[in-house]
Amino acid sequence: MMRLVERGLMYGNLFEVATPALVERYNEALEKLTGRRTLLSSFHIDLSGFAPEIAEEFEDHSYLNPHGCNRQFILLSVEQKRSPLLNMNFSTSRSILKKFIVENETALFALTSRDAVFGELMNSVYRISNAKHLLDIRQIRIEADTVKRAIAKASELSKLVERFQIEPDGWWNDELASKMINLAKETGDIRRYPVTLKNKSFQQGNFHTTHFDGVYVFRDTQLPVVISKIPKDEFLDFPIETVLNFSNRSLIAAFLEKNKLIQPLIDAEDLDAKDIILQRLDFIMVEHLTSEGITVKDLSRYELRSLALRTEKNLPDEFEGLNDLLRWLEQGGQKPTLSPEHPAYFYSVRAKFHPDRDLVNMLLAELMPQDILQLFICHKEAFYTSYSTWNDAKRNYATDFLSKEYFSDKTKVRRELFGDDSPAALKELHDRNQREAPPKQPWGKYPVPNYSRKKPTPSTRKKTKGPWGGTI
């Protein structure tokens, strides 16, 4: 894994804690949460304050996340909002904690200038020992304060000020005035610099969790569904009618299509489907070649294809299916039909714009694991797990590709892979969808990509530069 760390593909964008003052603030908060202190003089922390170096020191990667249920956090700076969240047990945790920091940035900036803010993402479940507990988690409440209890004291001072203003003898109550003065010495002027924190409760609707080998919970959809990686004959007892396994490709596709969560790549007007298909074909060829121990680093797309075609082994079905789709895009002819059972099916669709797009992209990344780009962007834990099983040839290719092609312009690559999700683009897409009648897809029918859109002729097709180089 060290080559990932060296390239910034693992533990990247962490916040450095290197001054004695910050280390001491962290230790004071850490002692409040765990009863332990670190002996390290410098380390790096993520969005929640988790430090990989301290995890190694404690030999405990869950020291801020006991039982993987109620995530604890330590904030030393609002700059932590730019950091990733490591060891994430619930897909909603990062967005909740980041939103909490952004919405309280002014107050947190003032608080962290003098002290550490620490707390917990709490729900009604304290230990997940049964699959049913996952469905009990519906609201996340954030409890937070500083080591010196600045928030609690500010709240107490606010109540005393209110008493002082409304009680008839408040002006002559020396005891009340003395309490207010003493608290104000610690909190400052809360009228000019309020330290109260807002929006401390967040709804947890659809989500992914690493518990029970990985589970996707869609309960806010028209037909609630749980998608589990556990084999069908070992299904867990979820209090929900429909539980699917990753082997139920047709039913997963039907669910996603029924709830308008996915669409065929070639129907996405904000994407260049050809670019994406070409890149996925590259990834499939890389998997095919590196499995034979062949070095593919620095090979062009033409060299990759030529080398793959010269190998004795047949190219996988994923390649054949996507190549048929590419041929139709370029040359026309008979439209290919990819059923959900076809290995290339999930490589031919994308998540539509909706509140759970990131969750669907995470699911799709697991259903098309050879696309190392989407796997790295949307499901890093799955990427790291897969990476540990690859040989050196594929590891070298993956680290080289991601550090050069993705890190060079993350925003551009994301836009060209997932589409433009800017407010203006989303409004235009929404207005267009409102004018168009949505296609009907009865539940239970295999959703087949709609390739009925007229293919542009080669003479009118606009040439654009793809996210991975080259003009198409």
Would you write up a description of this structure?
- The chain is α+β, with helices and mostly antiparallel strands and 472 residues long.
- The protein folds into three domains: 2-149 and 194-204, no CATH class; 210-247, no CATH class; 249-435, no CATH class.
- Helices cover 42% and strands 10% of the residues.
- It has 18 helices and twelve strands.
- The protein has helices at residues 2-6, 20-34, 52-58, 93-103, 105-112, 132-136, 150-166, 174-187, 249-258, 273-290, 301-310, 317-331, 357-367, 372-378, 380-387, 392-406, 410-418, 423-435, and strands at 15-17, 43-45, 72-75, 117-122, 139-146, 201-203, 207-209, 215-218, 225-228, 242-245, 262-264, 349-351.
- A four-stranded antiparallel sheet has the order 3-4-5-6, sandwiched between helices. A four-stranded mixed sheet has the order 7-8-9-10, covered by helices on one side.
- The longest helix has 18 residues, at 273-290.
- The chain is elongated.
- Residues 433-472 have low confidence and may be disordered.
